[in-house]
Amino acid sequence: MSKRSRCRVRWLVLGGAVAVAGAISLDTGLQLAACRVPGPALVICVLSVFTTLTAAGDVLADALTTTTYRCPVPGCSFRARLRTTDPGALRRGQEAAASHPIHH
């Protein structure tokens, strides 16, 4: 996948996450308002729902647009995560994962 298409995918996922988070937050706010929840608690609940769903969208966008190289040593948790698709950077990521000095 090219760098340009990865950027498009990332922005589409983030835009969709914000739209979905906004709609669900609005619905939550309306339901809580109908139950006569006090204003400060209503604001806190709506913002927390919005923030959580937007953060989940960010995690999804990262998962779809990053390349991860893991250390080949069994039991080692070292990873190199790259967002770029530049062949030189990808090669350096592979080399870093394969030859890092400390195995966790």
Helix % is: 55-70%
Largest β-sheet summary: 2 strands, antiparallel
Which spans have pLDDT < 50 for at least 5 consecutive residues? Answer: none
Side-by-side strand order of the widest sheet? 1-2
Shape, please?
elongated
Describe what is shown at a glance.
The protein contains three helices and two strands, in the order ααββα. It is mostly helical and 104 residues long.
Index terms:
about 100 residues, mainly alpha, 3 helices, 2 strands, elongated
Explain what this protein looks like in three dimensions.
The protein is mainly alpha-helical and 104 residues long. It contains 3 helices and 2 strands, in the order H-H-E-E-H. It has a two-stranded antiparallel sheet with strand order 1-2. Helix 1 (3-34) packs antiparallel against helix 2. It starts with a helix and ends in a 5-residue tail after the last helix.
